[in-house]
């Protein structure tokens, strides 16, 4: 029973809330929905389907990992181009006017009121719901480890990327280093720490906001999206990554 | 207009929401209310009126500062003995069985469900509402500095305390050091950094949860409660502290 509730037309999606595993999965870029009142932001259908709008494959991979790890999963209800849930409302790229090579017409010249409306409609319901999941678990004495799931493009600004699996940390690098070590030991994935970008690029907002204040072990995972282009490929990737995460979890718990 | 709302019988109290000043004041121990369903927790009326239940004078001082600084103020609706809003739900002292020399009968042997219920009834509505205030201000591009207001007892475990005004920091010490410097220069208060306790005692949860993720300058103020024992004394203390805070704010903004 909860005496309070967070109501929004764009609430966070929470799956497997009562799963018994220690890992809480988060997928901030799960969706390429462009719901009213914002609509398509002037983007073509091809743009709406592309990486600029979301992380293709990340939700399929998150769900496949959730089943294997008995993990709860919190994911986004709308495109990151309406509001990028992995950015604070003080950041221009929370509602980007331009992303990689794409202009975002519907994000040009937003007023302060536009930014406030999206913050209240999308950012706050998502992060307050995620905060509620974490607080509930802590109140019940449950070990909680935060892992965010992202995907990245094989080619960025015309340059191919050779890394297949990137693991990014913020202030606390325990889990990220354990994951890289387990992946390099147990898989043939081209795995690297803080690739294809790092906390210095401002990509660790969710970790800072949700995990660091409670001292929760945490990491951000980035999978190259050509490796999880279909749901079958995402399942196969989850078969490879689930043992890596379990091994890293055990390593961190031992310390 | 907000598409979401946080509903609770014990919502955070928000005053002067639209105040123009940069400082956002927070008073987590403002209240010695013992509402149903918890009631008095088996405490005497004297205990319910004493420092163990709340920070006497802190709300009066917070309101007096809010007027002088044109600041918004978020404060607690219930006693810290039901839930200490400056502690995460993983902390035993969020719902303390014993505090200083007092046993808290109603907090003995709480079940996980009891802890969850209080977390959902008090902790989450308070901190998600405070988060909403901060996020709204950031979306609007408003400079935001977080200052929490507390009071402490002149005598603790039988030992008198000579410090009158303590300023406590967490990871970011900019504002706290500027306040101490301004207080030592501009007042005759016995002022000290990280007295009568410090972040190492686990007292900076609100700063960590709400200010640090956004890089907001922040500090926790502790005033000896015999100096703010009446509303007139709190007003007089605000006359002394408001210029100190304004001066410190200017010093931090210059950096």
Automatic annotation (TrEMBL), chains A, B:
Gene3D superfamilies tied to this protein: Zn-dependent exopeptidases
UniProt GO molecular function: hydrolase activity
Alphabetic keyword roster: Hydrolase
Name of the featured protein: N-formylglutamate amidohydrolase
Organism the protein comes from: Pseudotabrizicola algicola
């Amino acid at each position: 029973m909860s005496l309070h509730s967070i109501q929004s037309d764009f609430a966070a999606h929470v799956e497997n809330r009562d799963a018994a595993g220690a890992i809480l999965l988060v997928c901030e870029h799960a969706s390429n929905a462009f719901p009213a009142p914002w609509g398509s932001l002037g983007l073509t259908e091809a743009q709406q389907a592309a990486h600029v709008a979301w992380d293709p494959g990340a939700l399929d991979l998150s769900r496949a990992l959730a089943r294997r790890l008995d993990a709860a999963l919190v994911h986004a209800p709308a495109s990151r181009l309406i509001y990028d849930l992995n950015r604070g409302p003080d950041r221009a790229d929370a509602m980007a006017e331009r992303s990689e090579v794409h202009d975002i017409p519907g994000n040009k010249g937003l007023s302060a009121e536009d930014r406030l409306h999206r913050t209240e409609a999308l950012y706050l319901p998502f992060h307050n719901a995620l905060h509620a999941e974490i607080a509930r678990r802590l109140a019940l004495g449950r070990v909680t480890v935060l892992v965010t799931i992202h995907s990245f493009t094989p080619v960025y600004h015309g340059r191919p990327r050779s890394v297949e699996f990137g693991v990014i940390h913020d202030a606390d690098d325990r889990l990220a280093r354990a994951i890289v070590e387990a992946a390099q030991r147990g898989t043939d994935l081209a795995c690297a720490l803080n690739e294809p970008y790092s906390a210095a690029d401002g990509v660790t907002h969710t970790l800072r906001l949700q995990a660091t204040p409670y001292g929760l072990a945490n990491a951000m995972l980035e999978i190259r999206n050509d490796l999880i282009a279909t749901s079958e490929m995402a399942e196969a990737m989850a078969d490879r990554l689930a043992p890596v995460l379990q091994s890293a979890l055990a390593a961190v718990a031992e310390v």
